[in-house]
Amino acid sequence: MSYRPDSVPGVTVIERYWTAIEARDWPGLSSLLTPDVVYELPQTRERIRGRERYLQFNAEYPGDWHLTIERIHEDPTSGASWTAFTVGGETVGGETVPALTFFRFDDTGLIAHITDFWPEPYDPPSGRAHLVERY
């Protein structure tokens, strides 16, 4: 399932971003980023500054991974996406790995800032099984 409202211009940028990454189209990805784009991974406390370093980070990322866009939401200055990643055509550890990515755009619509979250699945606390449905 994907959510892509046609009336929001920035959706095209995020869709093109993920399409370029999935295709390993580094020149196409480059055209969507500001020269001084910032990429942050809060869980590992890593930050990459600059388009060339970010492109290299993606080009050198190991494994035969693929992604599916689950949802995109945007306004004219920012957006968010929920994607699902698999490795080697199989799911990672028997499960799809979700990623939540937040984008900020500059005045020309290029991506200026990216924050990526890779949530790890975990077992819920005990005592609420009577309230929830597991999926």
Would you give an account of this structure?
There is one protein chain. With 135 residues, the protein is an alpha+beta fold. 20% of the residues lie in helices and 36% in strands. It has three helices and six strands, in the order H-H-E-E-H-E-E-E-E. It has helices at residues 11-23, 26-30, 51-59, and strands at 33-41, 46-49, 65-74, 78-87, 97-105, 111-117. Strands 2-1-6-5-4-3 form a six-stranded mixed sheet, covered by helices on one side. Mean pLDDT is 87; it is low at 1-8.
Question: Secondary structure elements and their pairing?
Answer:
Layout: H1 11-23, H2 26-30, E1 33-41, E2 46-49, H3 51-59, E3 65-74, E4 78-87, E5 97-105, E6 111-117
Parallel strand pairs: 1-6
Antiparallel strand pairs: 1-2, 3-4, 4-5, 5-6
* Main sheet: strands, sense, barrel: 6 strands, mixed
- The general outline is globular
Tell me the strand percentage band: 35-45%
Quaternary structure type:
single chain
Helix and strand sequence: HHEEHEEEE
Share of helical residues = 10-25%
Rounded Rg: 16 Å
Q: What distance separates the N and C termini? A: 16 Å
Class of secondary structure makeup: alpha+beta
Spatial sequence of strands, sheet with the most strands: 2-1-6-5-4-3
Count of runs of 4 or more consecutive helical residues: 3
Quick structural summary:
With 135 residues, the protein is an alpha+beta fold. The chain has helices spanning 11-23, 26-30, 51-59; strands at 33-41, 46-49, 65-74, 78-87, 97-105, 111-117.
